[in-house]
Amino acid sequence: MSKLLYFNEKAETMSRDELAALQDTRLRHTIAYAMEHNAYFRSRMNAVGLQSPADFNGMADLQKLPFMSKEDFRREYPLGMCCVEKNTIKEMHMSSGSTGTPVVMAYTENDLAQWAECMARCYVMAGAQPGDPCQITPGFGLFNGGFGCYHGARKAGLFVIPTGAGNTARQIKLAKDFGTKVMTGVVSYAIRIMELLEQDNAELPDLKIGIFGAETFSASMKKRIQDGLGIEAFDIYGMTETGGIGTLGMDCSAHAGIHPWEDHYIIEIIDPETGKVLPDGETGEIVVTALTREAIPVIRFRTGDLSRIVSRDKCACGRTHLRLETIHGRRDDMLIISGVNFFPKQVEQSLLKIPGVLPNYQMIIQDHHGIKRLHINVEAQEGVTGYMVEKQLKEDLGFSPDGEIFAPGTLPRPEGKAKRIFYENSDEKK
C-alpha cells in the first residue's frame, strides 16, 4: 500500500480561490446559525448593526463583527453561548488555566467528528500511517489534550496506546514493548522522557514522530528534543475555545510554519492595541473564527497568542492552507525588566545556545520595592557557570539577569505543563 501523504487530500490541497469561496459560504451560514440559536450572539450582532443574517455580506463584512475573548466564555459560564439543546451535547472540556472561572467548550456529535478530522490531518501530515502505534501522554480529563489526540488517532486508523499523563518509567516501558512510533504530549514532558532514557542509557528505536503542544516551542527546544529522542518533532496548535488540540493545525514536514485548517477556521492577525487587521508578515495577535463548530462557534475570538502569517503560497508539502509562524508567546506573557520588553520564549532560546545547559529552568521575577529583577535557575553540566548564563542573556536580551546553576535533575519536574515563571516579592518576606 502506498504511503498516505494527506488524510483529506481534496480539502488540504484546494486552491486559494476555492478556500476563499468556501470560507465565505461557511461564514454566512455561521453568522445566521449563531444569531438564530443563541441570544448572546444575536445581541452582539445587533449591536454592530446586523439585525438579521440578510444584513451580513460574508467575508467582506468580517471586520465589522465584534471580537470575542475568554471573558465572554467566563461571563457566560457554563453554557450561555451554546447554540444547541443540552441533550445533544456529547462531551465537554475545560481550560487548564488555574485562575478565575474556567472556559468550557461543549461538543455535539458533529463537533467531535470535526475535531477528529482536524487531528487526523495532523497525524498524517506528520507521517503517521494506519496501524502505527500512537502513545498519547496528555491526561484524559477536563483538559482537552488526551481526548483530542484519541479522537484523531481513531479517525486516522492508528493503534492507540492511551497512557495518559505521568509515570514516565512506565511510559518508556510501554513504548518499548509496543513499538510506539508516534508520541503526543506537552513540550516539557518530552524533555522528561529524554532525561530518563539518558539516565538508563536507553533509547526508543521505534519512535519516529513526536507531536507536541500546549507550551511555546522554541526552535532550540525543538532541536534538543529531535536530537535527544532521534525523532521528527511537530508543533501542534489549538485551544479549548476553538475545539481543542489540532483544530488550528500543525507544522508539516517542511517545518516552514503552522498550517491552520482554513476550511474550518478563518485566521486574522490584528494589532493587539488597536484591533486593526495587519498585513501578512507583520506580527500581532491571532484572531480565530470557527466555520464548522456546532455547539459553540467562536466568532473573531482573540486568542492572546502572537504570531504572523508567513505565506499563503502553496507549501513544499503540497498543502495550500496558509502558514503561521511558530507562536512567539502570549500577549499577556510579555515581561518588562530594566526597561526591556521580552517574552519567556526568548529566554529559553538564549539559554539553549550555551553548550552544557539543559532544558530545565526557572525564571524568577524578583520585585524589590517596585524594582523588578530577573533571576534564572537553570540545570547544566559541570563547567557551566552563572557568569556564562548572564553573559549570554545580556547579549540576547540587552540586560543582565542573575544566573544560578543547578546540577542535572535537581530542579522540580512537572508531569504536565511546565511552570517556568515564579514571582518573589521582597516586601512579602518581611
Fraction of residues in helix: 25-40%
Q: What share of the residues does DSSP label as strand, in percent?
A: 25-35%
Overall geometry: globular
Low-confidence stretches: none
Mean residue pLDDT: 91
Give a short account of the largest sheet: 7 strands, mixed
Cα-based radius of gyration, to the nearest Å: 22 Å
Could you give the order of strands across the largest sheet? Answer: 4-3-5-6-7-8-9
How many β strands by DSSP? 21
Category by helix and strand content: alpha/beta
N→C terminal distance: 70 Å
How many helical elements? 12
Can you describe this structure?
With 430 residues, this protein is an alpha/beta fold. 30% of the residues lie in helices and 25% in strands. The protein has twelve helices and 21 strands. The chain has helices at residues 9-12, 16-37, 39-47, 70-75, 109-125, 145-155, 168-178, 187-199, 219-229, 344-351, 386-397, 426-429, and strands spanning 91-94, 104-107, 133-136, 159-161, 182-186, 209-213, 232-239, 244-251, 258-259, 265-270, 284-290, 301-307, 309-311, 323-324, 329-330, 335-337, 340-342, 357-368, 371-380, 402-406, 421-425. It has a seven-stranded mixed β-sheet with strand order 4-3-5-6-7-8-9, sandwiched between helices. A four-stranded antiparallel β-sheet has the order 10-11-12-15. The protein has a four-stranded mixed β-sheet with strand order 20-19-18-21. Helix 5 (109-125) packs across helix 6, helix 8 (187-199) packs parallel to helix 9 (219-229) and helix 10 crosses helix 11. The radius of gyration is 22 Å and the shape is globular. It starts with 8 loop residues before the first helix and ends with a helix. The model has no long low-confidence stretch (mean pLDDT 91).
